[in-house]
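Holo prediction — NAP.
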Amino acid sequence: MTNPGRIAVVRRFGAPEVISIETHPVAPLRSGEIRVAVRTGGLNPVDARLRSGTFGGSVPMALGTEFAGVVLESADARWVPGAEVIGWGVQGADADLVTTDATRLHPKPAELDWALAGGIGGVGSTAVTALDTISAAPGDVIVVHGAAGGVGTVLVQLAAARGLVVIGTAGPANQEHLVRLGAAAVEYGSGLSERVTAVAQGRPIAASIDLAGSAEAGDLATAVLAAGGQAITLVPETMAGHGIRLVRVQRSSATMAVLLDAIAAGTLTLPVESLPFTEIVEAHRRLDAKHARGKLVLDLSDNPHLPVL
Ligand SMILES: NC(=O)c1ccc[n+]([C@@H]2O[C@H](COP(=O)([O-])OP(=O)(O)OC[C@H]3O[C@@H](n4cnc5c(N)ncnc54)[C@H](OP(=O)(O)O)[C@@H]3O)[C@@H](O)[C@H]2O)c1
């Protein structure tokens, strides 16, 4: 019998302060299920939407959708206790224990840092999905709105590696960050379109990828479409406000393998900041602020279910 574990729950939708860490009992595993002791909990903007109620669903609601950890028990022969894994698609992953199935687990490389293991999947898979949705050839110019966050940091590097010319938008504090990733950096705000045109030096914009959801990103996407280019958004507000095609992340073990190979090869980096699980309210305040550089994750190294190393 496994001891109970902690889990982050909202019992009413609202500001970050509605989150509480509760204790939850553990049910026996059913055939095909795998129980993982969580070492890192991923944090994504969708978690803030879920918490506030703008994503739908009902309360009480357990938070978190992705994680990295160690298999504790397994009713599937493919995973044995002690295996280090990266997992996704589980509601309630901000917890000591998650129960999942083999289709939503990928082996964690032993040398991969735990924080990066818990943070790369969602943003990396979103970046791959977005890039695979557009049709762009080496030398084409693309604009990435909101390029300094988790998704953008990965997307800029993958796009540059494909030979695309990337113009990324970010605030003043993140301009250098974008240049280091391989983008031409442009500040968002009034006059964005003129600044992008100047940096593009007369070359047409092949695609606009919106990760920011701002009105000016929507306006520029509309202009790119009107000029015969492509435009997609990952943000529902830009679809609602400007009619730009909304793309949803596709997650798979195959995509995880591509991302992990790029990290191992040194061609993909992602700055990750960890906050202790007990500071999940502060973590959600930061999600609400929408000014992340790279990635924020939850550190559950104090999880009593983790094997003692
Ligand atoms: N559809 C899907 O399946 C899917 C999947 C994953 C993510 N998403 C969405 O994609 C978006 C990005 O996710 P993320 O994880 O990368 O978020 P994030 O890490 O919180 O990054 C947000 C970034 O947006 C930038 N930003 C804020 N206001 C901006 C503006 N007006 N113009 C341009 N950039 C601005 C910030 O840069 P500064 O600090 O420099 O301002 C920050 O780096 C979120 O809305 C998320 O919900 C959708």
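READOUT: The longest strand covers residues 33-42.
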